[in-house]
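Researcher: Let's try something more involved. This one mixes different molecule types, so please make sure each is placed in the same coordinate frame as the others.
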Amino acid sequence: MSIDTGTAAKVAKLARIKVEDDQLPALAEEFNRILGFIEQLSEVDVDGVEPMTSVTPQRLKRREDVVTDGGYQDKVLSNAPDAREGFFAVPKVVE
Amino acid sequence: MSDLNKLTLAEARDALRKGDVTSVELTEACLAAIDGADALNAYVHKTPEIALERAKAADARLKEGDAPDMCGLPIGMKDLFCTKGVASQAASGILEGFTPEYESTVSQKLQDAGAVMLGKLNMDEFAMGSSNESSVYGDAINPWKVDERNLTPGGSSGGSATAVAADLCLAATGTDTGGSIRQPAAFTGTVGIKPTYGRCSRWGIIAYASSLDQAGPMTKTVRDAAIMLEAMAGHDMKDSTSADLAVPNFEAMLTGDIRGKVIGVPKEYRPEGLPEEIGKLWDDGAAMLKDAGAEVREISLPHTKYALPAYYVIAPAEASSNLARYDGVRYGHRAKLGAGDGINEMYEKTRAEGFGDEVKRRIMVGTYVLSAGFYDAYYNRARKVRTLIKKDFSDAFDAGVDAILTPATPSAAFGLGEMSDADPVQMYLNDVFTITVNMAGLPGITVPAGLSSQGLPLGLQLIGRPWEEGDLLNTAYALEQAAGFVAKPAKWW
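Model: All components are placed in one shared frame. Result:
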């Protein structure tokens, strides 16, 4: 398993993190080192083993499906980098 | 009384009740110590006004009687906890300026118990790191020093460990995803416990890897850990993974009597190249527990060596999902956009500017292991290995083991910057003894047990059965008494 700069660029794109072209070879090399380390997992016999979904055997609590909170638009927007007229503002999405 | 900031929680609690001291006096002593310790870079947002206001309220409550144990005790808060009206940025540039409108459940419980928040503490960015070197605020510095070098306090709860060790608070909160409470406690000669997964609510704690993250106290003594954990723990409807179990009076369980307890010593925790002094400390710890009447038994946890690689699949996978929320829309940093930049450029530039290198690395590794075609080979396989790691521990407990004794770290604190050229994997090895505990969801505690040949603190870790923090704390208490670690860093800052 070896990651090339093309794969590194694709991963960066999927993660929505801008990586300059000249940084891609170093990034690919780091991925390869980390994935090389992870590769040891292929030695383990996992036949018939269930993947863990919950580390403690517990049933998730249920609650009534009703609104219990809310009604404070100002607080929700108070940390937004750009909020206008009660909305989050972003660059134009639809042409 | 002098040096009030040097008191333990238990000593201060008792002094408050006797009327020998007030919460305002304790708080002022801590605030003065904090102001004199900027060189350690432990506190990144100081909150003296809040502290004094809460201290006054605590004094009034104490006068009325019937105040909880934590009432009036000044503590530091890791920057990962959202605190209403006080900057909370997980030591990340991407949360620059973020001021929560709400309070995390754990910090609210502490506040309700009357604890006094002194400020927010330094940490590795998003709790990803073992040296506090990935913080946007700069490195926190270990108060322990043996030569001209500045040493790491460990991470990710490095600011918490520094603050406790340097008496800049009576105790502090930490969080632990792979060792982030226990490793810094070991590096600073302090006590840190990560409780069973689900013991403390994660609500309002900025998420790293949700199936592994747990909050816990960082303190000067085991007794203090028992007192503070009780105040932090408990069921919370806002965290569906928090356990609906009664929280015992942990302090009342500290008898120091461990006669007949079975202590497991796992042979897989002695990797090649383990420094001799760490091996000796471990042997000495086992001998102390034996002298106290416990049976020490060698055990095997055969999947130990796979915990670290499995963690570096699962934790980045969860991080890539959790950190997707930092998009420059709802809170925190947004990059300046060029003409013609659309929403994707906004996301990509914002995240490139806001996140540090280690965080980006883990997000991208997580993105990769979850991507189509690799999900089964990496993520599902790692989750199966995690099942086997947990089974190793269950088998040991089923065979009668009460607690497991291991070293806390493979070395004493190292110099800041010394690992900067190393492979990321080298840094990950710091957590080799602690990470298994998160993978299995178990409680684990670090107790200072001795000094290295250089004069730096070394810790031992005890791992307990799920939900039996009380029994674990009692074993740790016996170890603490036998080890008799009393050294403190000489003040140089």
